[in-house]
Write a structure and sequence with these properties.
Oligomer: single chain
Number of helices: 8
Number of strands: 0
Largest sheet: none
Strand content: under 5%
Distance between the termini: 16 Å
Shape: globular
Number of domains: 1
Order of helices and strands: HHHHHHHH
């Protein structure tokens, strides 16, 4: 896999997610371009770089988002969620056409669903009474899961134009296989 398009796409997704969040936010829900890139790498790329990229993108997503400002920055929930999402995409990618924007959108929904479940579970487990940490103030599992699923749907809508651009640049990534 060519690192140059990876660095450019990761930087672009990071900038989009960091700077346009206030502009794109609708009712506290904003899309996650880093998730789209993680799904694209899981769908088209080799498995080990896809999983490590998902971990890095998840850590960046955790550092950027603060759904519970009183709790500070929580590194971990999105990182674990993105890795699970990438793993799910790696398992499901043989069922879809890798050169299709629609496939990327469907995989974004599937991977995002797993990421939302894992992120909510991590935050909920953090609030169990026998653990040293408390759940973030104002956290409810159902409320967080609902907001996370709306984020996934919004991200899937953004995956149409972003996925089209990523798929047009696919030859420059040199993933090492030509199979669909």
């Amino acid at each position: 896999m060519n690192r140059t398009p990876w660095v450019i796409a990761a930087y672009a997704a990071l900038l989009l997610q960091a700077t346009l969040r206030p502009v794109w936010s609708v009712g506290g829900v904003a899309p996650e371009p880093l998730l789209i890139l993680a799904v694209f790498l899981g769908q088209c790329g080799p498995s080990t770089p896809a999983l490590f990229s998902a971990l890095l993108f998840g850590v960046l997503a955790d550092a950027l988002s603060r759904p519970y400002p009183e709790a500070g920055v929580l590194i971990g929930p999105a990182a674990v969620g993105y890795v699970v999402a990438a793993f799910a995409v790696l398992q499901l990618r043989s069922l879809v056409f890798r050169h299709s924007v629609l496939s990327l959108v469907v995989m974004t929904v599937a991977g995002g669903f797993f990421a939302a479940l894992v992120e909510t579970a991590v935050l909920a487990v953090r609030g169990l009474t026998f653990l040293a940490a408390d759940a973030p103030p104002g956290f409810t599992a159902l409320g967080h899961l609902g907001r996370a699923l709306l984020t996934v749907l919004y991200t899937a809508a953004l995956a149409v134009p972003v996925g089209w651009m990523l798929l047009k640049t696919r030859p420059t990534w040199r993933f090492g296989h030509d199979s669909a």
